[in-house]
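pasting for the record
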Amino acid sequence: MQVEYINPFINSITNTFDTMLGCQIERGQLALADPNQGSNDVCGVIGLSGRAVGSVIVGLSKEVAIQASAAMLMMDPSEFDGINEDVVDAIGEIANMVAGSAKAQLEEFELSISLPTVVVGSPADIRFPSGIQPISVPFTCKWGELELQVGFNPVEVPV
């Protein structure tokens, strides 16, 4: 995966948290993702297909997931009794917004995005398709920590 393709995803998650959730996030250092280092309590996963194949994962700590869900649903975080259906639905929608906005900035790949899948539990063992080395981007915000993982490879298009 070329590093310049990660920027639309970074811009997208930053804008989503800022405009949709009223929470500024601060980016950490990009690194190759380590599949054995999963530490997120809730992960929204979106598949990518088209002229590229791969996945996007928005991983959140339990606290960030609840706070983000509360902001999105205009509720008080104390109304949530842990990771419930509302939190799962909200995290799926956040992952969808992040992937959808980035997709619009990567027109050359004619990407389609899958419906979101939300994985709850830590450490989640989510694997990217073989041959794809995802990039991990950690973020921090007033609610805690989150992580964006993106990995996709262009595919040969028959002529």
